[in-house]
Amino acid sequence: MAATSRNHTIQFEAAKRAEDHAHQSTKKPGGNGQPELVNTSKQSVEFEFGGSLGAVGLIVGFPSLMYYMWIGATYYDGQMPLPVDGQTWLEFGHRLLSLVYIGAFPTTKAWAIYWSFFIVEALFYCFMPGVSGYGKSLQHEGGRQLNYYCSAYSSFYATILLAAALHITGIFPLYTLIDEFGPIMSVAIISGFLNSFIAYFSAFWRGRTHRLTGYSIYDFFMGAELNPRIGILDFKMFYEVRIPWFILFLLSCGAATRQYERYGYVSWEVMFLVMAHFLYANACAKGEQLIITSWDMYFEKLGFMLTFWNLAGVPFSYCHCTLYLANRDPVEYRWNPYSLAALFIAYLFVYWVWDTCNSQKNGFRQMERGQLVHRNAFPQLPWRVVRNPKAIKTETSDRILADGWFGLARKPHYTCDAFFAICWGLITGFNTYFSNKRRWGHVACQTNFYPELFLYKSAVSKRKAN
């Protein structure tokens, strides 16, 4: 199941290259009692993402981009924030920082919301019903296979029931996620950094470092430990399957409840996003046991890249279609009903392709090891498993699936992911504010009176709600 936030191709030869560097390495104690290989010939390291400089750029750029996008969605009617006439770049930068401070300060309430969710999901991981399976053999640990406990499916529906109960009782209305989006996003960003630092330094403290390059910044970005765990809770699995997609779905539910509370109904456009994000989160949860043999689980280390992007980047940047609809009257983006029906049908068809091709790919790996687990999870789709599939054997004794969807196209799940992203944007409609007098008047007002305008908009929103 494609539960990772990154849709880029990494050649498996990289693993072999890492082993080829062993003769240029020194040994230090590893967490499993075996010597750990640490590269001492820095010239032989092949870097991704531009090496240390690229890592620094991404570490700074990820949160900066998230704030920039949030400012555009919140204060610029969904457009790119740019200086207005007569405004210097220094003044513009100061204004952006002021908007972040005013609208996205990490309040105590935001900390309580985010970390309550985090802790509840961690408890669900450990105590909700699930299935177990073994990952791929880890050569650096003498061929040991880690046992993974997969309870995301029951956790997802428990999360839905808990969220519904909190909303209905008024203890925690779901639209609070929309109202407090800025502060919660800031907490997620800070948490992404904190968890990354903890994971990095604890790997050294516990002697669990693996495949280090000797470049500290790059190693922090890519990770120092392969499978950090506390008991049965595997943090990489926890971050990739639950946190981002559950939050994304709950944000869409928050938009729906906000719209119902404000207008007395939920538009079909918002319902489309609720459906889309439900299907994605549900698919990741129901296929959790299939990803335990994937590249991310057995090769990628848990560094800043995976930690930050799953705790903050995915849920709080993939949701801008949701924010756009939540902040506007439905008449501004209403689709023709026939076109909307066609989009629903097309989306469901592509979802079937995406779900089944991921199931075929990962199920193929499970069948190779005799570990395929059949689960009666919703939805049960036809052609999710290819029996006796055609496969190509490689020089490394691995086999490449060449049947099912993968006999018809290369990486069809990436095409489906692109279609999903287009649809999530397409559902917001085609309105533009570049030539809209209302937008420019709004921007000019923000330039001179943005703190007061923020308070005014908040007051108007509350008045509409009442």
TrEMBL record:
The chain crosses the membrane at residues 49-70, 113-135, 156-178, 184-205, 263-281, 302-326, 338-357. It is found in: Membrane. Its EC number is 1.3.1.71. The keyword Aminoacyl-tRNA synthetase does not apply. The keyword Membrane applies. Residues 13-37 are annotated as: Disordered. Residues 14-23 have a biased composition (Basic and acidic residues). One of its GO terms (biological process) is ergosterol biosynthetic process. GO terms for cellular component: endoplasmic reticulum membrane. GO terms for molecular function: Delta24(24-1) sterol reductase activity. It catalyses: ergosterol + NADP(+) = ergosta-5,7,22,24(28)-tetraen-3beta-ol + NADPH + H(+). Keywords: Lipid biosynthesis, Lipid metabolism, Membrane, NADP, Oxidoreductase, Steroid biosynthesis, Steroid metabolism, Sterol biosynthesis, Sterol metabolism, Transmembrane, Transmembrane helix. It is a multi-pass membrane protein. InterPro entries: ERG24_DHCR-like, Sterol_reductase_CS. Pathway: Steroid metabolism; ergosterol biosynthesis. Pfam families: ERG4_ERG24. Its main location: membrane. Belongs to the ERG4/ERG24 family. This is Delta(24(24(1)))-sterol reductase.
